[in-house]
Amino acid sequence: MKRVTGFFTLLLCMAMLMTGCSGKGDGQTEAASDAAGTNAAAESQTAESQEPLTRGEYKATDYCTIEEYKGLKFAEADIKASDDEVQNEIDQLLANAQETKEITEDRAVKEGDVVNIDYTGYVDGETFDGGSASGSDLQIGSGRFIDGFEDGLIGHKKGEEVSLNLTFPENYSEELAGKDVVFEVKINKIQEYTTPEYTDEFVAANTSYDTKADYEQYVRDGIRENNLTSALADKLMANAAFADEYPESLNEYYRQTYVNYYNSVLQSAYGITLDEYLDTVQEDLETFLTEEVGADIEQAIQEDLILSAVAEQEGIRAEGDDYDAFLQEQADQYSMDKDELLKTYGEDTLEYAYISKQAYQLIYDSVVVE
């Protein structure tokens, strides 16, 4: 799964604290998704609270010491975008615009092809939920199906029917783990990806820029900014010292934040809850929070404490006209009024979002690039 920590992601918590993620999706997951065998999961709390999470009462400077945070220096050569980085972005843009083209010549399936198939899976001679589909596109080599499925289609031609005798992985769902399965597959057509030519016309049609030069300058600027932000994060972490233990309330705040986040991601992507995903991979909540995302949680806590400590030292508070304007800005962004915003996310989280933004801006504005 994608990691969610990132230094100074100011409204990370707001995006992750939404509740109401326990409903199960209606659609069945096709065998390709079932066979993915992903191994990170978390258990959601079954009794979800409608109350927003709170960070608790503590003084950040009791847990984090940081003195060097203004006037930090960086070399331009270390943060500027390289030609390879820019090319990677161009390649990704082109890859996103790829289209499939049906192969008309009489040839067999090979690695990288996109095959359109009908398939039915049988375990002990019986079909099973999620084991059948018609007209499904599958790229050979994508790893979407269990081991042996995609490789088993290589060398076969359009119109052929193929029997694949395979075995589900041991870490698969409880009902199917380790069982033998036979997939009956018909290859409807063979396709391949075509990549468009990188031209000014392509850029104008697929980005908000008119020319390759303009687009590449935008990419360079964005990469440089990301590199600077990353270097700044590293330096601030190196300049900070932390207590042996963190505030218990803050630790719990981020643990539950991550549970809510992964619950939301799984439901959005696969229509399942954390409980269901956890059952599939046979992992408990505590193992997930300590071994799978424990480092992420600790990093989030440290980032939080750094910004909070800077805010305390600089006298930054969530009050006055600027804070009111910030609340209105967030309310507008989430299509809420301010009262609804405060009720949904909690004043505690909103106050931190504001002071962390102000603290980071103070640090960033003082950066010196030589």
What would you note in describing this structure?
- This protein is α+β, with helices and mostly antiparallel strands and 370 residues long.
- 44% of the residues lie in helices and 16% in strands.
- It has 13 helices and nine strands.
- A hairpin with a 2-residue loop joins β4 and β5.
- α4 (83-96) crosses α6, α7 (248-270) crosses α10 and α10 crosses α13 (347-365).
- It is globular and about 70 Å long.
- The relative contact order is 0.21.
For the biggest sheet, the summary is: 5 strands, antiparallel
How many helices? 13
Spatial separation of the terminal alpha carbons: 37 Å
Class from secondary-structure proportions: alpha+beta
Fraction of residues in β-strands: 15-25%
Question: What is the average of the pLDDT values?
Answer: 86
The counted number of beta strands is 9
Order of helices and strands: HHEEHHEEEEEHHEHHHHHHHE
- State the share of residues found in helices, binned by percent: 40-55%
**Low-pLDDT residue spans:** 1-6, 8-13, 17-49
Shape assignment = globular
Radius of gyration: 25 Å
